[in-house]
Amino acid sequence: MQRDGRRLTIIAISALAGLAVLAACQDTTPPPPAAPRPVRTMVVDLRDRAETISQTGDIRPRYESDLGFQINGRVARRFVDVGALVNPGDVLAILDDSDVVNELKAAEAEVLSAQASAQVALAAFRRQQQLFDKKIAAQAALENAEAVWKSAEAKQQAAIAARENAVNRRNYAELVATEAGVVTAIGANRGQVVGAGQMVARVASADARDAVFAVPERLIGGAAMGMPVHVGLVADPTVTTLGVLREISPAADPVTRSYRVRVTLPNAPAAMTFGATINGTVTLGNGRVIVVPGSAITSSFGGPAVFVVDPDTARLILQPVVIARYEDGVALIRSGLRAGDRVVTAGVSKLRPDETVKLEPAP
To answer: Phi/psi of residue 316, each to 5°?
Structure first.
């Protein structure tokens, strides 16, 4: 009897549990909505923001010429070395001129021979002219004498031109500086055979100096011809001058992906010698931008974005933006936001689009 009573009790308990589960399954009451997440926000506006950029560069000559002989030959002497100061007309090197001297002597001899031939032809022409005037010589003889004389005159002029070329070639055996400057490289030594145009000495003009910088690609868009650049010597920051941007490379360096920028220095101090390391500072204006804390930036499809609070529904909108640059814990937004937008400034990694939020009071 006791065993039958226990069995009935277990069956009754199981039936009650099944009814409870059935009642729970039939309960379709929706769960209460989640409470809005509190967020810290700010209302953004447009601001004028400028960027001060400092780049390291060096001093280089504006003009640098590779000087070489205009004829082939063997270098007999070289009078300068790297670092030598030269003035216009200074002889930098000379060639062995034995061959060109012989050419000049031969050209002078040709001139003397042509002059003699021209004189003889002229005398013959004058005699034929006199005989023709006296009705003694024929017209054909006079014309022949005139042709011989004119041919001799032409040969004389050709010999004179050849002598001038020989004189020039004799002068070309001397390499002469064309302007004042500093020798920065040597390309030939004594006894070396050089070809016409081969660099023997490289001379940097001392009249004008440039500051040369390698500017990153992200900054080159803000550079403009004629903009002022403050240049200072790294070794002595008290040595400064004001330069003007005069040249921007049209293509980036294939290795560094930077652009070469040259700044002319009209009043460069003497301490800014060739090769000196300098700092260049320039202020770039980025126009009107929106400034938000760096903590407000998240990502959307691989690009930067921010969460904007919809003023009507208090829901979050993930808004892609274009960032001009970052500065000391803030981000400068170039586009993607409008003045008056309310942006979430903290905890953005825990937020999701279309999430309802509650604004926290400003601290």
So the answer is: -90, 140
CATH number of residue 308's parent domain: 2.40.420.20
Across the strands, what pairs with 277?
Answer: 58
**Domain residue limits at 182:** 65-96+174-206
Domain count, the chain: 4
Task: Report how far Cα 91 is from the mean position of its chain's Cα atoms.
Answer: 35
Half-sphere exposure of 227 (CA within 13 A, CB side): 17
One domain, residues 310 and 353: yes
How far is it, in rounded angstroms, from Cα 344 to Cα 39? 7
**Token pair for 9:** 């009790």
Structure tokens at 133: 């005037």
pLDDT recorded at residue 28: 57
CA atoms within 13 A on the CB side of 255: 1
DSSP code, position 274: T
- What is the rounded distance in angstroms from the CA atom of residue 340 to the CA atom of residue 334? 15
The verdict on 268 and 219 lying in the same domain is yes
Inter-residue long-range contacts of 115-123, CB under 8 Å, 24+ positions, other chains counted: 115/156, 115/159, 117/152, 117/155, 117/156, 118/149, 118/152, 118/153, 118/155, 118/156, 120/152, 121/145, 121/148, 121/149, 121/151, 121/152, 121/153, 122/149, 122/152, 122/153
User: Could you report the per-residue pLDDT of 43-82, keeping only the tens digit for each?
Assistant: 999 887 777 788 899 999 988 889 999 999 999 999 999 9
